From TrEMBL:
Its main location: cytoplasm. The gene is purA. Plays an important role in the de novo pathway of purine nucleotide biosynthesis. Catalyzes the first committed step in the biosynthesis of AMP from IMP. It catalyses: IMP + L-aspartate + GTP = N(6)-(1,2-dicarboxyethyl)-AMP + GDP + phosphate + 2 H(+). This is Adenylosuccinate synthetase. InterPro entries: Adenylosuccin_syn_GTP-bd, Adenylosuccin_syn_Lys_AS, Adenylosuccinate_synth_dom1, Adenylosuccinate_synth_dom2, Adenylosuccinate_synth_dom3, Adenylosuccinate_synthetase, P-loop_NTPase. Pathway: Purine metabolism; AMP biosynthesis via de novo pathway; AMP from IMP: step 1/2. It is found in: Cytoplasm. Belongs to the adenylosuccinate synthetase family. The lineage of its organism: Bacteria, Bacillati, Actinomycetota, Actinomycetes, Kitasatosporales.
């Protein structure tokens, strides 16, 4: 089983970090293929808790080579501080590989992210303010700065000047912001160059060779399917493709090389930032999910919006990603509810709709149609097999599997590495 993609099936924060870390011991490479330090991936190993933003979660497994692919946007200051933070905790980060084609988040991209959001006022996206969207915009506009540009001072200056020509006009005239000085940006970026140079490699070549040799390569998505710029709830999305196809473009690996696509699926639903969310709860159940589930953003510290499980979204994730498996996380959080509502369809303008509406306005009006499933009260955090789960928890998982269109191959019953029930191996 050489190549697997592991991605978020909802709006992010499904538990991808834990799932990736769990597999880390059995894989040779873990590759981030999109996004940047907008991600916040929590990994709990024994009594140690790690919050990773830019680095692949496989970095915590000693045998695994972590890779930042060409599709990622890299804030060099964040990269270096995350590396030194891990080094201080005794984690060896020396195997890291970074694509020279990955784009750099510059200080002016962060400025543009923040002023744009301010300008949008109540129509804002609720971005993480890390410069993600403006950096991808520069990439598509062909005015981006790439990791490899750090190693050629005159090219770097030319590219930064070209990017700022236009941007400074906008900053000054539209946003009433002072102009950014190209030389200062270049000086700051060059300050990172020597520390980054040793990690830079032709990651596409290395990964394709690895797959051809039968090594196991895991592509770790950031964010989630509904935050995908093409397939998500546009414009309330991130600016990259977390969906499975993004692994191909964001790492330079063809679709024929990918054998398995695992969707990480929370047993309920959460979302950070603005945008439609049909099963969102504004009552004490929502508050209970937030409290019991610890639903607070790892990156921005914002409370996550919480709601019941939405099978329409899960089916959609199966479709647009070609999912082969689900990893259902946080089942333990639902312990204690007498009955658990699950959204099986939407009602839109009086009509029952089974699939995610293609039209944005329809999705904004979608009302969840709930089916009630019986709950359980037994502690499930120590369960090691499906059979050890209470009957109603088993029935909940089976019902979700039937509605969602792909087998549930693992179940998370707690944040720790070992708090997982494996039903089918991901590596067969
Ligand atoms: P990611 O962005 O998809 O990696 O997810 P986050 O790390 O942002 O959020 C998931 C949270 O749930 C983290 O605090 C994890 O430690 C935690 N978590 C993951 N799986 C489980 C699980 O099965 N049960 C519980 N209770 N917590 C989990
Ligand atoms: P992980 O990998 C949840 C959301 C932001 C905002 C929108 C756009 O931890 O699942 P951006 O800064 O990317 O331009 O913000 O996307 N967002 C996330 N929500 N989990 C994430 O990552 C997210 N990364 C971005 O809240 O609504
Ligand atoms: Mg997260």
């Amino acid at each position: 089983m050489p190549a697997l993609v592991l991605l978020g099936a909802q709006w992010g924060d499904e538990g991808k970090g834990k799932a990736t870390d769990l597999l880390g011991g059995s894989v040779d490479y873990v590759v981030r293929y999109q996004g940047g330090n907008n991600a916040g991936h929590t990994v709990v190993v024994g009594d140690q808790k790690y919050a990773l933003h830019l680095l692949p979660s496989g970095i915590l497994s000693p045998g695994c080579t972590p890779v930042i692919g060409n599709g990622v946007v890299v804030d060099p200051a964040v990269l270096l501080s995350e590396l030194s933070g891990l080094n201080e905790r005794g984690v060896d980060t020396s195997k890291l590989l970074i694509s020279g084609n990955a784009h750099l988040i510059t200080p002016y991209n962060i400025t543009v992210d923040k002023v744009t959001e301010r300008f949008l006022g109540k129509r804002k996206i609720g971005t993480t303010g890390r410069g993600i969207g403006p950096t991808y915009a520069d990439k598509i506009n062909r005015t981006g700065i790439r990791v490899q540009d750090l190693f050629d001072e005159s090219i770097l200056l030319q590219k930064v000047e070209a990017a700022l020509d236009f941007k400074n006009q906008v900053l000054a005239k539209l946003y009433n912001h002072r102009a950014v000085v190209a030389e200062q940006v270049v000086e700051e970026m060059l300050g990172y160059a020597d520390q980054i140079k040793g990690y830079v490699a032709d990651t596409t070549l290395i990964l394709n060779d690895a797959i051809d040799e039968g090594k196991v390569v895991l592509f770790e998505g950031g964010q989630g399917t509904l935050l995908d710029v093409d397939h998500g709830t546009y414009p309330f999305v991130t600016s990259s493709n977390p969906t499975a196809g993004g692994a191909c473009t964001g790492a330079g690996v063809g679709p024929t090389k990918i054998n398995r696509v695992i969707g990480i699926l929370k047993a309920y639903t959460t979302r950070v930032g603005a945008g439609p969310f049909p099963t969102e709860l504004f009552d004490e159940d929502g508050e209970a999910l937030r409290t019991i589930g610890g639903e607070r953003g790892v990156t921005t510290g914002r409370d996550r919006r919480c709601g019941w499980f939405d099978a329409v979204i899960a089916r959609y994730a199966t479709r647009v990603n070609g999912l082969t498996d689900f990893f259902l996380t946080k089942l333990d959080v639902l312990t204690g509810w007498e009955q658990i509502p699950v959204c099986v369809a939407y009602e839109i303008d009086g009509k029952r709709v089974e699939e995610l509406p293609h039209n944005q306005s329809d999705f904004h009006h979608a009302k969840p149609v709930y089916e009630m499933l019986p709950g359980w009260s037994e502690d499930i955090t120590k369960a090691k097999s499906f059979a050890e789960l209470p009957k109603n928890a088993q029935a909940y998982v089976k019902a979700l599997e039937d509605m969602s269109g792909a087998p549930i191959s693992a179940i998370g019953v707690g944040p720790g590495r070992d708090e997982t029930i494996q039903i089918n191996s991901f590596l067969d």
